[in-house]
Write a structure and sequence with these properties.
about 425 residues; elongated; 2 domains; Aminopeptidase; alpha/beta; 6-stranded mixed sheet; 4-stranded antiparallel sheet; Alpha-Beta Plaits; single chain
Length: about 425
């Protein structure tokens, strides 16, 4: 890194002195109940962040993702992007955080939107995933600007929406319009909660599909006059259990996916429904089911192709059809994302790993995520490969009741973010 050691030390001291600011900003962000769906409080949260950065000399733009799923005048998909230009030309480092959070659910012992501080932790929905990371990135950049560092290039900070529902009203929408592509942006860090000593360089792929087996309705007292779609689905489940699951378990990836169980191909049966509607009360109607539907959630490796993933399921269904003459099915694709993986030796991954070693005194663990996040859009739509996830928080706490983020982790991650930014902006 070309930044002078004196400046680096100054930045680190600035961040340590701003621990209370990191906590306060995290609390303020948690107190915006940006629940998705439906997409509540997006505008006030985005404007709060934008106003703060505007006062620090950033150019701030608000981008509504009109026409994307869920966007309406009541629930507008408002994104904020702030940019601070340096004194001379150079690369751009972009910190991207999503401001939406999932439903609170039951089981909380604290106010989900209270931002309570207790035992060195900030509690609340989104504390871990990922408002603590957003706060750390903001304070890291502010400390960098106040340290006397001669900023070359540019720094951007964005607060985007709808990551929890695919990111189509957030990063995907912006990427389609060039906000995450060169020459505007060179390096992207997404402060997702993957532990403060980990650098996440990518994620597995995902394919969601609905399989429907078809039958013929008849009176339940004479099922031989009908054709049960549920029985047909049971034959599909039998094939999945004894043929597909063992095949998936035998495939292992060179991707450093965590936890260890996710280094293989996996499939979850998300839901299964046939026959009587779930909403019925009282006694069911005596009918043979003429439809049974199953949702599958298939997570696949970078060594696999989406075509092979789909073809494997189709081939299984066709084998069932050969064994059951009256078997008919429909398959509908719901969602798919290709695996994504940055170069572990690329600029942003290596700079962040080096900063982890400097700040924490230990080697960074290079990992991939079992599930997807907005790197998929930066990579596939923005065509920008130099993108990683790094931030405070324990991934296992995301979406849980009593979600929290550690204050010490936020401070340390802010230091890592600042040092890696200085490295990336002054290389070469």
């Amino acid at each position: 890194m070309n930044a002078a050691p004196k400046i680096v030390d100054s930045v680190l001291r600035e961040i340590e002195a701003r621990e209370d600011q990191i906590v306060a900003l995290t609390q303020d962000l948690i107190r915006f109940p940006t629940v998705n769906p439906p997409g509540e409080a997006y505008r006030p949260c985005a404007e709060y962040l934008g106003n703060r950065l505007l006062k620090r000399g950033f150019q701030v733009e608000y981008v509504r993702a009109e026409g994307t799923p869920g966007d309406s005048d009541k629930y507008p998909r408002i994104n904020v992007v702030a940019r601070r230009e340096g004194k001379r030309k150079g690369p751009c480092v972009h910190f991207n955080s999503h401001i939406d959070v999932v439903q609170t659910g039951a089981g909380w012992t604290v106010d989900p939107f209270g931002g309570e501080v207790k035992d060195g932790k900030v509690y609340g929905r989104g504390a871990c995933d990922m408002k603590g990371g957003l706060a750390a990135s903001v304070v890291a950049v502010e400390a960098l600007l106040d340290s006397g560092f001669d900023l070359p290039g540019a720094v951007e900070i964005s607060g985007t929406v709808d990551e929890e529902s695919g990111g189509y009203g957030g990063v995907a929408y912006l990427a389609e319009r060039g906000w995450f592509s060169q020459p505007r942006v060179d390096h992207v860090i997404i402060p997702e909660p993957l532990n403060v000593d980990r650098v996440c360089i990518g994620h597995r792929g995902v394919w969601w599909a609905e399989i429907e087996t078809l039958g013929r309705i008849a009176h339940g007292s004479m099922p031989f006059l009908g054709d049960s779609a549920i029985r047909h689905m049971s034959a599909v489940l039998e094939k999945i259990e004894h043929e597909l699951y063992p095949a998936l378990a035998a495939r292992h990836s060179d991707m450093p996916v965590v936890p260890e169980g996710a280094r293989q191909s996996t499939m979850n049966i998300n839901s299964l429904h046939g026959g009587e509607g779930e909403e019925f009360t009282g006694l069911p109607v005596p009918c043979v089911a003429d439809s049974c539907r199953m949702i599958i959630d298939r997570r696949f490796l970078i060594e696999e192709t989406i075509e092979s993933v789909k073809g494997e399921v189709t081939a299984l269904l066709d084998r069932v059809a050969k064994e059951r003459p009256s078997f008919k099915y429909k398959m509908r694709e719901l969602f798919s994302v290709q695996p994504s993986m940055a170069d572990r030796d690329g600029p942003v991954a290596s700079a962040t790993a080096k900063a982890v070693r400097q700040i924490l005194g230990k080697e960074a663990q290079i990992v991939c995520s079992p599930g997807t996040y907005d790197q998929k859009h930066v990579d596939r739509i923005g065509k920008l490969k130099d993108c990683i996830a790094y931030g405070p928080g324990v991934l296992d706490l995301a979406h849980q009741p009593d979600e929290w983020v550690g204050i010490a982790d936020m401070v340390n991650s802010a230091k890592v973010m600042a040092v890696s930014t200085m490295d990336l902006l002054t290389r070469g």
